[in-house]
Structure formats: C-alpha cells, structure tokens
Amino acid sequence: MRISTTTIFEQGIGGITQQTSDIAKLQNQINSNKRILTPSDDPIASARVLQVSQSQSLTEQYTKNSQTANDALSLRESVLNDVTSLIQNVRTLAVNAGNASLNNSDRATIASELQSQYDTLLGLANSTDGNGQYLFSGFQGATKPFSQTSAGVVAYNGDDGERQIQISPSRQVPVSSSGADIFQRIRNGNGTFVTTAGSTNTGTGVADLGVVADAVKWNASNRDFTIKFNQDTSVAPSVTTYDIVDNVTGNSLLTGLAPAAAPYPRTYTSATSISLKSQGSEPAFDFGTSLTIEGQPATGDTFSVKSSANQDIFTTINNLIATLKVPTATGTGNATLTNQLNKTLTSLDLTQDVVLSARAVGGAALNEVKTQQDTNDNLVLQYKTTISNLQDLDIVQAYSQSTLKQTALQAALKSFSQTQSLSLFNFIQ
Amino acid sequence: MSVFSIGISGLNAAQYGLTTTGHNISNVNTDGYHRQSIVQETNGGVGTGSGFLGQGTQVATVKRSYDQLLETQLTAAQTQAAQLSNYLDNINQIDNVLADSTAGLSPALQDFFSAVGDVSSNPSDVSSRQSLVSSANTLATRFQSLAGQFDNVRQATNEGIQSTVTTINSLAKQIATLNDQILNQNSTSGQPPNDLLDQRDHLISQLNDQVGTRVITQSDGTVNVAIGNGQQIVVSGQSFQLVTVNSIDDPTRLDVAFSYGGTNVAIPNASITGGALGGYLDFRSNSLDAAQNSLGRVALAVAQTLNNQHVLGQDLSGNLGSAIFNVSTPLTIANAVNTGTAVINTTIANAQNLTTSDYRLDFTSPNYVLTRLSDKTQTTLSAAQLAAGVTVDGMTLKLGSGTPTALDSFTIQPTRAVAANFTVASSLTANTLAAAAPIRSNASLSNLGTGKISAGSVNAVTDKVTLTFTSATTFDVVDNTSGATLATAQTYTAGGNISFNGWTTQISGTPVSGDAFTVDAAVTNKTVSGVGSSSAIAEAAIAVTPNANLKQTVTITFTSPTAYTVTGTGVPASTTGTYSATNGAAITFNGWSAKITGSPQAGDVFTIGANTTGVSDNRNVLAMAGLQTLKTLSGGTASYQTSYSQLVSFVGNKANEVQVMSKAQDTLVATTKATQQSLSGVNLDEEAANLLRYQQAYQASGKLIQIASSLFASILAIGN
Fold it and tell me: How far is B639 from chain A (nearest CA, A)?
C-alpha cells in the first residue's frame, strides 16, 4: 500500500504520544499508590470503596461510642461498688446495735456513726461524671437527683430515663440507671408483704419476715390486714388469742363477720406460724402467706400485714437512726427495737440485692462493650484491607509495567527517528 | 509537424510535471491537500502516406487524487470522533469532581454522622453539639460546592454550544464563498479548480468537527450542507445562520435554532449529532442532567429525613426541634409558548420515591400526561387530580392557579437545584439541636406491681404502619414498629385523606374486609389478604408536624391487673384498655408510643409527659444517627451513601464507556485516514522519484531539440 509521508509521521507520533500518556498514568498511579485515580478507572470498585469507607467510619464511631460507654459504665460500677460497701457497713452497724449488751449511749454512738454513713450515701447518689453530669438522674443529667427536703426525707428529682449508647449497628447499651431504680424502688418487708408492730404495743411480740407460699393468692387478696391480740390473764397460764381483720372490708377473716370481742377465734402460741389461710371451721380463705410472732403480745397489741411498698434506702437508714436514738429500758422497748432492727436488716439486704443486680447488669454491659470493641477493631481492619484491595496499586506490577512501557517508548522513538532519516532525497545528488 | 515542436511539447509536459511535483512537495504538510498529478496524452497523429505520425504530447489536465467514498467515510468517522472526544472532555470534568476522595460528598457525610454519633454519646456536652453544627455547615458547603462545580460544567457547556455555533456559522459562510468561486472558475476554465476544491473539502471536514452534516454535491460543482433533520446551512453561494436561544422548556439551557427570515426555529437536541456540538448536547442530556439530579436527590433525602426526625426531638431549652436544613422546592417551568394561565406547583411529598429524572407535564385536554423523561414513562392524570394535588414519584403536583389550554406543557425538575440551595437553618445552634425526645415515662414509686413502662418514643414517619379493613367501610391502624394500635374502626371514605405519624395517603376503590395496606417508611404497598379487591393505595406524602398534645401528661391507671384507664389532655374521655401480663401492652396517644410490661397491680400508675430538663437524653439523636444507614432513597432500597455511590459509579461508568468508544472511534479514524491518505496523501519519496522522472523527460526532450537543431544545422551546412 502507498503510504503518505503524513501518515508515516502521524503514526509514529501517535504511537509515541500513546506510550507517553500510558507512562504518565502509571507514574500518577505509582505516585499516589492508587489503582483508581478517577471513578472511570473502575466504576464498580469506586462505588464499593465509598460504601466500605462509610462502614469503616461508622464502625470507628461505634468504637468511639464503646469507649464512652466503657468509661460511663466503669464510673457507675465504681460508685455502686462504694454503695455496696457502705450498705455492708450499715448492716454491720445495725447488727451490732442489736447486741443486747449495749446500753442507750452505745446505741446513740452507733446512730451518729450511721448518720455519717447516711450523708456519704447521699453524696454517692449524687455522683457526677467527668462532664459534671449526675449519674443517677435519668435523662436530667444537669439536675441533682437527690435532695433532702427535711431531716431524713430525701426526694428524687430525676426521672426513669436510661441513657443508651449505640455500640454496634443493632445494639444500644444502657449506661446509666435511674436513681429511683437503685435507691428508691426497694421493697420493704419480705418483698411481698410487710408486718409492722403497732406503735402502741406493750407486749414483747416480735414478728419475723413471714413466708410467701403463693404470691398470686396474696396479690388477689385485699392485702391489708391487722392481727389483734388478747391475753387472758384470768387463767393460769394465761391464754392469748388473736383475730385477723381485713381492713378493707372491716370484717374478721376468721369469722367473716364484724370483729367480735375477745377472746378471739384463734389461740396464739409463741413462735408458731400464723397462717393467712382458713383453718377448721373458718370461712374459706387462702392468701398464700404466713408469719411467725415470737414473745408474748399483750392485750390490744396489733401487727399490721400489708403489701410491701417501696421504701428508699435513706428512709431505711434514717428510721434505724431514729430507733437507735430512742432510749429503751423496758421489755417493750426492746421488742420495738428488735422489730425495727429486723425490718431494717431485711431492707438493707433487699437494697443490697437491688444494687448488686444493677451492678451485674452494668458488668454484663461492660463485658459486652469490651467484646464489641474487639469486634469493631477487627471489622475496621477488615474494612481497611477491603478498601486497600479495591483501590490500592499492586506496586510491583505497576513498576514492571512502567519499565516495559519505557522500553517500548524507547523503541518507538528510535524507530521513528530512523524511519524519518530514510528519504530518497538523501540519494539524489 | 516538426521534431522541434514535439520536443517542445515534451519539454512543456515535463515542466508541468515538475511544477505539479513541486506543488505536491511544497504542500506535503497542508491540511486537506490532495496530491495532484498531470494527466498526459498524445497530441494525436497527422496522417501521411506512411501512416500516422505522432505530434508529441500535451497535458490534458491536472488531476487530484480524490475518492468521494473514502472522503465521506473519513468525514463520518471524524465527526463521530469529535463528538465522543468532546463528550469525554466534559464528562472527565465531573468524573474528576467526584474522584477526589477528600473533597467528595462521602467524607462530609461521614463526618456529619460521626458528629451525630458523638452527640449521642454525650448529649449534654456543648462542644459535641457545637461540632455537630459545624459539620452540618461543612456538609451544606460540600453540597453547594459540588453543585457549583456541576453548574460550572453546565455553564461551560452553554458557552461551548455558543462558540461552536459561531464557528459553524463562520465555516458555513466560507463554504458558501468557496462555492461561488468554484462555480466561477469551473465555468471560465472548464478545468477543476483543485486547490479551491481542497479548501472547500477541508472546510467541510472542519465543519464536521463541530457538527455532523450531510453534504450534497450539485451538478454545477457546488455543495449544499445540511445539519439536524434537514436544516440547510449552505445552499450554493448562500449560507444561513444558526443561533443559540434559551430553551422554551428550560430557560437555563441553550438550544440551537435555525434562523431564517428573522424567525428562530429550535432544532430538537436529539436530531443534532456528531461533532463538538453533538458532544455537548449528548453530554448535557445524558450525563450532566442525571448526575446533577442524582446529587440533588441525595441532598433532598438528607434534608427531608433528618428534618423530619429533628422536629420530633427536644432541644436543651425544652423546645421541640425545627428543621436543620433548608432545601429549595422543585423547579416547575411553564413552557415559554404556553397560552393558558395555569400555574403548576410542585412540592416534594416524599424524598424516598424520587427519581433522578426530570419530568414534562402536558395538558392534553381534558387530562394531563406526566412524562418521566429518563424512560418516557407516561402517567395520565385527571384535571380533578391536579386540582386536588396528586403525588407521583415522590412529588406532589397541584394546579396552583389559572387554567391551562390544550398543548400547554410544563417542565419539572424535582431535584436539579436542590444541592446548590442546600443550607443549614439559621436556627440550628448547639442549644437548639434536638437530641432528646420530648416525652418521658414514669412509674409511680407507690406502685405495688412489677409492671415497667418503656421510655416512650415519638411515633416516627418511618414506622411501618398497617391499615387493615375490618369491614368494607372500617379499618384499624397498627404501628408495626411500636406494636401500638394507632386507631380502630376508622371510617373509610373513597379517596379521603388518611394521616398518621406525619404521612398522608388515600385509598381508592372498593376494599373488602380483610384487605390490608402497608405504609412502610411512606413507600406504600398493598397486601390483600382477603378476597380480591379493586382498591388501591396512593403514594404517601410526608409532612411531619408533631402532635399538638405531644408533651401533655397522660396518666395510665391500672384498675385491676388486667385493665387500665387512660386520662390526660388529648386522650378521649373514658379511655380504657385491657392488659395481659404475657404480652404487655403498647399504648399510643398524642403521637407517642410506650410499652408496659410485667405484672402491674390495681392502683399502679404510669405517666407519660414532657421530658422537662432532660438534657442527658439522646433518644432523638440516636434516631438521627440511625438514618445514616436507613434505606431512605430509591423507594427504600438505598441509603444516602449508596445513592451517592450510584452517582459515582454512574458517572464513572459513563466516562469509562465514552473513553472506550472514543478510543475505538479514534482507531477507526486512523485506519480510514490511512486509507484515504494512501490514495490522496503526498509521499516525498514518490515525489523525489517523480522529480527524477520529469527531470529525465525534460532532459530527453531537450536532447530532442538539440538533435533537431543539429539536424537543421547539417541541412544548413549542405549549402556551405
């Protein structure tokens, strides 16, 4: 075929231009260490890189969140740990106070020691985190959760909110507890019902915690009863009888009628179970609970049996302090003290349970956060590898390609210059 | 005839040959030059008794090596190559805009959501909040700057079209002038004016670099040149002007129009192909529009979904949130030649259902036809629908005022300008960021049961809601996300508005008992579980406004372990409910939902009310953070990031495709050109040989004259 001079020239130059631009692109790739310089180099991979980089950024955020959750949970754990030891101390003091060998002034000393524990506890309940946010005020981090409205009465100013932190795409962990849940929602009595000795009792009857055989039956009852005692001292030994009155209907449970005068339907024996279930010819009733009273109740002594209600830890300690401050000398005084101490010890144990279970929840969350942090770290590494695989340059291959292209360019240059030097004009003299 | 004159004729012919060869050599680098050669022929013979005696030679004509077929092929290949190369240059600009991994949208979007995440960890921390406000501004700036770069490219395209049209006009004029000269010379000399023809062919080739043409050669040697669908810009010695005009559909874009007798007639974009002009138009309608719309759609979705969540939250001062981002409403452009007075208003109903296409609404009297320009899908809308407002593809079209006349049309660009007008609301500050939920729940301390109440959440527009018909005329509404029953025994009116959680939709037709409709993040779908029914549910429109009674205190009092009453502002009088400890109860009033679980006792009280001073609450900002990965686009199939990635891969793919096509076309041009050049190009070696040939012929003819002269001399010598 005929070749025009222009064609020879254009083809030669075209080849050289192509080689040069290829080398320039490789150079660019090597300089940036990226295979993809613009999306058009690999549209699919470019889009994938964006997606994966979002996942990476999201996971890094989760790691950051996990750290915050970790800090918050650790702080909460440390405060609750202090609360646990404090309650333990209070319990020890309460046990000591029950020691029969103590006199009034010893108990007053214990009371003042308890007062200082009480103040410490109030301080712990009002703990703040590094940002000055209260730990136990629910959503209201800037509101001081517990304030003493009058001596021994503490009000909760927070709410039931639980702060959550997102630590993975599908998991939010709670990092705070409502102060009400930890310090206030503590049932008194045995958790189902509470037996309280009448304040005007003169006998030595001391009630125990009671036993719940069937909480459903208890819940179905009117849940407000009074046990009334009568001691007939006209016979020897004296005979003590009791009646159980439903305070809602006003009737005696044992007769189904308005309470009759003494002697009462049932006979009392110290340390024998008093069951809230019909016996013998009594009208049928079964409230699934029983309790035991020990000692000798006097005529007119009463014990109320009611559903357990929430009693905050501050009230519990404060009641204890108040009880210990009252001088006792008589048997009744001792019975009141023992009744009160019994109730306090139970309440303290229930408080401890509540705090410990809150700590357990926090501990589990802490574990979860730590596991999630490891998972997140692995994921980030994985994402980085993926991104690198997608967009980074295989440097060895690129370098060898670059060398190859340079050789080709050299060949093109050389052959072009040689072709150009060939001309018939060179031979025409 | 004498030997002399034969010698002279040979000398002359050789001289012509040398001249032509010289002409070839000197024009070896002239664009559009076709190699010329002399066509030599004998001068004929003179009859003698001894037969015919030759009379030497003559040059019949100077011929250029020209093949019409090859030239046409080359021109066609070149005009296509010019179109692709221009397309490539343009798309590379937006490819580069998106290429930058630090300046693209992704990093800004990721930083924004990181800031949202930080606030969710420390909702009361003012510095985290401040940093969220800053990232929101960065995000807005990024949207604007990306949109700005798209706008620059659009502006450059308009300018390119203008300058191309100017070049076309000038070339057309020159071709017309050459037509005149060629006609002149043809008629005076009868010989082809080779160099003028070359010049004209070259101009035509240049014209084809600007726009694809059809060239028709006339019998008199002149050519007519037509573009588009037959607009003749050169007719013999006359040229006609093209002008650029604002498109009647969209004044921001330039169209090419044919100017004749003072009137401009726009040439449809699609009919102009080839050359730089074809490249600009193709790029604009097939890449730039879609890319810019796609960016706008991401911006719109970001703004709408985040705003919708934010207004359901509560800021540090206890006020409900307001919109974070401002975006522009869709552009609705009445065609410049509309004769009616109708004004169509378009609003965004639901970003989730938007496409990246533009639309055209034609009034075909009595109905309207909405055409999605990307795939030409047509939807017929009645005048009544337009009057009431109708939602199609996530936008609501409504006749604002006036009346249309038949053939009026409107161009709708739902997302084009959104990214450019994406701004952060001035009301957004560290304090007004609504990180908290406006409500919180509380269980009374004196509760005796073990019942617990969830923190309560504001019903979100993204909740999945099922409408189930309990009879042909009544239906129940259940929020599947919270499990709460939103309403029972609602009366069905065909086409009537049904609004819950911030969306509004309509059901039409005849539903039967058992029919169920799901509104899922406002993408509607129909699940008919009963007998077949002809009813349908319309696309939902979203307008989130928190319930007026949202923050009112509502009290739930258990009258027994299995029954409760609800009281409070916004709650109908004597509202009661039944409770099962096994399933708990989801309760919804005033726009919130809460769940009670456990075993409450008679007399237990739960309240839900304002989240006063709830500064450490992060529920709303957690919900905002969740939007990053929620599939809020393309009918619930793509997140913001996915949608943006689609844009990147769309542009990348298109650029890649054009690059490959352009390369292939360049190869075709090179091959065609080599073939054309092999016929028409000058080869210097060949010319060198020709020089020798004609030199030798010249020398030989000279020798002939010398011999003739010596012959003559010998005759003369006889006399001496």
Answer: 10
Choose the closest CB to B684 out of A54, A140, A423.
A423
pLDDT over 70, % of chain B:
98
H or E segment to which residue B400 belongs: strand B395-401
How many other CB atoms sit within 10 Å of the CB of residue A80? 21
Q: What does chain B come to in residues?
A: 720
CA-nearest of A317, A316, A290, A313 to A303 is A290
- Across the interface, whether the CB atoms of A65 and B121 are under 8 A apart is answered yes
User: On the CB side of B589, how many CA atoms lie within 13 Å of its CA?
Assistant: 25
Q: Do A41 and B656 touch (CB under 8 A)?
A: yes
Q: Which residues of A touch B645 (CB under 8 A)?
A: 46-48, 50-51
B223 with B233: CB under 8 angstroms? Answer: no
How large is the ipTM? 0.86
φ/ψ of B564, rounded to 5, equals -145, 160
- B611 with A11: Cβ contact below 8 A: no
Show the tokens assigned to B521.
């993040």
Verify whether the Cβ–Cβ distance A139 to B436 is below 8 Å: yes
User: Backbone dihedral region of A250: left (phi > 0), alpha (psi from -120 to 50 degrees) or beta?
Assistant: left
3-state helix, strand, coil split of chain B in percent (to 5) is 40, 25, 35
The residues, any chain, with a CB within 8 Å of residue B541's CB and separated by 6 or more, are B349, B350, B391, B396, B503, B504, B505, B522
Of B32, B57, B40, residue with least CA distance to B194: B32
**Does residue A408 surpass a pLDDT of 60?**
yes
Query: What's the pLDDT tens digit per position in B636-656?
Result: 889 999 999 999 999 999 999
Contacts of B281 (CB under 8 A, 6+ apart): B161, B256, B269, B272
- Which of B101, B442, B448 has the CB atom closest to A160's CB atom? B442
A38 vs B440: CB contact, 8 Å cut-off?
no
What is the 8-class DSSP label of residue A424?
A: G
Contact A40 B453 (CB under 8 A): no
Reported pTM: 0.88
The whole-angstrom separation of Cα B303 and Cα B291 is 19
pLDDT score at A333: 64
Task: Return the pLDDT at A130.
Answer: 84
CA–CA separation, B701 and B12 (whole Å): 9
Q: Which two tokens stand for residue A266?
A: 């049932």
Note whether B290 and B311 are within 8 A (CB): no
The answer to whether the Cβ–Cβ distance between A428 and B691 falls below 8 Å is yes
Among B112, B128, B158, B218, residue whose Cα is nearest residue B618:
B128
Cα Dmax for chain A: 164
Which chain A residues contact residue B101 at CB under 8 A?
49
Chain A residues touching B669 at Cβ < 8 A: none
Q: Output the DSSP codes for B640-677.
A: HHHHHHHHHHHHHHHHHHHHHHHHHHHHHHHHHHHHHH
Please give the pLDDT value at position A24: 93
Q: Are B597 and B452 in contact (CB under 8 A)?
A: yes
Give the type of residue at A353. D
**B681 vs A contacts (CB less than 8 Å):** 2-7
Is the bond leading into B366 cis (omega within 30 degrees of zero)?
yes
Residues A232, A233, A236: CA angle, nearest 5 degrees? 110
Secondary structure of residue A154 in the 3-state scheme: strand
Q: Where are the alpha helices (DSSP H) in B274-422?
A: 275-283, 289-310, 383-388
CA dist., res. A302 & res. A227, Å (int): 5
DSSP label at B517? E
| Residue in B35, B645, B685 to test binding to A, most A beta-carbons within 10 Å | B645
Q: Considering only CA atoms, give the Rg of chain B.
A: 41
CB contact under 8 A, B652 and A160: no
